[in-house]
Amino acid sequence: MLSISVIAAFPELVEYALDFGVTGRARQQGLWRWQGFALHDFATDARKSIDARPAAGGPGMVLMPAPLDAALASARAWHGEKSLVVFMSPDGAPLEQSRVREFAQHQHITFVAGRYEGIDQRWIDANVDAIVSVGDYVLSGGELAAAVVIDSCVRLMPGALGDAESATFESFADGKLDWPQYALAPTESRQMPAELANGDHATVNRWRVKQALIRTWMRRPDLLARAKLSLEERAMLDEFTETGI
Ligand code: SAM
User: Fold this and answer.
1) DSSP states along 1-21
2) Are residues 61 and 122 in the same domain?
3) Which of 120, 134, 164, 178 could disulfide-pair with 171, CB 3.0 to 4.6 Å?
4) Which domain covers residue 209, as residue numbers?
């Protein structure tokens, strides 16, 4: 079972985000468990302060080390062993599927969500194993960012997805984007590509590979530059770039 703890000002945001669909079902099935550690519960003064003014000046507040220490100690006790400590921050390495696969190998992970201007650097230096960003933009807190990483890890757990093949045939699984999807809706009269209507297995397979290549070429050429294409895939892409079909 995957055990996940979340240290945050508002950990309930993470629980709510993950209570539905694949992640909610996986938790009911006992594939993963989680525990939130609300920083205000670990404040050491009567006013329940968790933040202080930045030593370097400037606007806002910074999360103090002491409540984070106490929350991490409680999280460790809950895990029963050392967990991987992941701090969510816009200055971390942008999340990619390869990183998600690495995280999904761990049994115990503690996510730390910042608020305000972020977290005291001394605490980060002493406790954090990985810093992860969900993209080049700034959220008001790390809770939703942590939920993004947890969701992406949980759905990779064996048994989490209704069809295990879903995680094999999807964007980034092999360095390409997914092919366009069409619903086999019985009452739908809008036309779909002829290759799909035809239903021949080999034709559909070729269509899937070629469409995934075309979509990646058009939308994410950076991925394609890194992908190892087979000769057949290279020929399909050349056919498209030369003829537009
Ligand atoms: N002062 C920080 C900066 O300029 O980089 C921004 C702090 S942000 C307002 C508060 C918290 O939200 C951060 O400590 C982090 O936990 C979370 N956060 C914001 N954007 C994020 C992102 N793109 N990825 C991951 N976490 C993010």
Assistant:
1) -EEEEEEES-THHHHHHTSSH
2) yes
3) 178
4) 169-243
